[in-house]
Design a protein that fits this description.
about 260 residues; alpha+beta; Diaminopimelate Epimerase, Chain A, domain 1; 17 strands; about 50% strand; globular; binds ligand LBFN2T5F; EC 5.1.1.7; DAP_epimerase_DapF; lysine biosynthesis
Length: about 260
């Protein structure tokens, strides 16, 4: 039976399959959709397809659960780093993504659980934007942390926030789509965040989303670096002074074979 070997890893509940690109076949987008299907596949928020490169230790190409390609994932990059470290014992891993090389440094290791501090580059802050949808007018901060984000500060997470996020992301303001973060400021160094990701929907956590939330909070004077970003799946720490660094866990959950 032809099959594809995979590793599944989770970073604060944001789960990824890490697979050699040699198995991607001629339609990686369709294959990723099948693999990520939570009922008929392995189940994941995305696939990190890995391949050799001369520019870093490894290249990782991210395909979201819906088959769309994304520039980078903060959590997915740490999941790749965990798999590489598990195989080679390396403690410093440079990963080429669609948003440049991300350097990951191992900070904690216990069995199949890892923690890395990753250099995530410089954010590009487009600024405040008001988006009108059928029933709402929503103001947020539009920025890129390698991929697109729209950060909305809220007092409380209102019921149905996922529906609002979906309709905001579909407006013409975001021709390439966007990830949406609803952000509650807890104090000068901590946030509570809910995430609605491009190509996935609601997720437990997001690395680039945590970076975007912290950068938007610091930029608008609500917080100071470092910022602890709590999400339903767990917490990560974001530091920002020029470059962003992101510290968080990644656990290898299982390995297996997907029958094609
Ligand atoms: N969960 C990720 C972001 C994954 C990519 C995103 N869905 C997009 O399309 O930009 C993270 O941890 O950063």
């Amino acid at each position: 039976m032809p099959s594809i070997p995979f590793a599944k890893a989770s970073a604060c509940g944001n789960d990824f399959l890490v697979i050699d690109f040699a198995h991607a076949g001629d339609n990686p987008s369709e294959l990723s959709r099948r693999l990520c299907d939570r009922h008929n596949g392995v189940g994941a928020d995305g696939v990190e397809w890995i391949l050799p490169t001369s520019e870093a230790d490894i290249e990782a190409r991210l395909i979201n659960a819906d088959g769309s390609e994304a520039e980078v994932s903060g959590n997915g990059t740490r999941c790749v780093a965990a798999c590489i470290s598990d195989h080679t014992g390396a403690t410093k891993i440079r990963i080429l993504t669609g948003a440049g090389v991300k350097a990951c440094e191992l900070t904690v290791h216990n069995g199949t659980s890892f923690e890395f501090k990753a250099a995530m580059g410089k954010p590009e802050i487009a600024g405040e934007l008001t988006v009108k949808t059928r029933h709402h007018e929503t103001t947020g901060i539009q920025l890129s942390t390698g991929n697109p984000h729209f950060v909305i500060f809220v007092e409380e997470f209102e019921e149905g926030w996922q529906v609002l996020a979906d309709s905001v992301a579909r407006t013409p303001h975001f021709p390439l789509g966007t990830n949406i973060e609803f952000v509650k400021v807890l104090d000068r160094h901590s946030l509570d965040v809910r995430l609605y990701e491009r190509g996935v929907g609601e997720t437990q956590s997001s690395g680039t989303g945590s970076c975007a939330s912290a950068v938007a909070a610091i930029h608008s004077g609500k917080c100071e670096s470092p910022v602890r970003v709590a999400t339903p799946g767990g917490a990560q720490t974001v530091e920002w002074s020029g470059e962003i660094t992101l510290t968080g866990p990644a656990t290898i959950v299982c390995t297996g074979e997907f029958f094609i």
